[in-house]
Specification:
Elements (H helix, E strand, L loop, with lengths): L4 H16 L4 H9 L4 E4 L5 E6 H8 L7 E4 L4 E6 L14 E2 L5 E4 L9 E5 L10 H12 L9
Antiparallel strand pairs: 1-6, 2-4, 2-5, 3-4, 3-7
């Protein structure tokens, strides 16, 4: 089944942006061509904020966000936020801000590889998640009762 051209263009734009977040975009593309996760270091364009996958899904809640990478095998998600946004998460438990230079192993935007896929794909625009809005959404999710998770 062929991917519609409009979707293919979206993937291409997201892949181009993501690859260019690396100092070695050619290496990123070559890695993806081998159907492997490409290493992209945090810090220059964005940092990664790590949460549990379920918390990430609740925090998405239909709102506008930047890219969110999910790993179903480890039950983890990484939000791409501006490089200066770490302070918004200082008081949050179960949230890990990965420091500049930390490597996030990423699939291309339209593929799932090794249990990783984009819950919210990079679209090529450079849009990142607002750290304050994400911190607020994660705090709200911490106060839900277990029965409220599906509501």
């Amino acid at each position: 089944m062929a991917v519609p051209k409009s979707i293919a263009r979206l993937y291409e734009a997201g892949d181009k942006w993501l690859a260019e977040c690396s100092p070695h975009p050619t290496v990123v593309r070559m890695t993806w061509e081998k159907e492997a996760l490409a290493p992209i270091a945090t810090g220059t364009h964005w940092i990664a904020v790590e949460t549990q996958l379920l918390a990430a899904m609740h925090a998405l809640n239909g709102q506008q966000h930047g890219p969110v990478l999910a790993d179903t095998e480890t039950d983890v998600a990484w939000w791409l936020v501006p490089a200066d946004g770490a302070g918004a998460f200082a008081e949050l438990r179960n949230v890990h801000v990965r420091p500049p230079g930390w490597t996030l192993r990423c699939p291309p935007t339209g593929w799932q590889l090794e249990g990783r896929f984009w819950l919210n794909r990079p679209d090529g625009s450079g849009l990142l998640t607002d750290p304050t809005a994400l911190a607020d959404a994660l705090v709200a999710g911490e106060h839900r009762l277990p029965g409220e998770a599906s509501a």
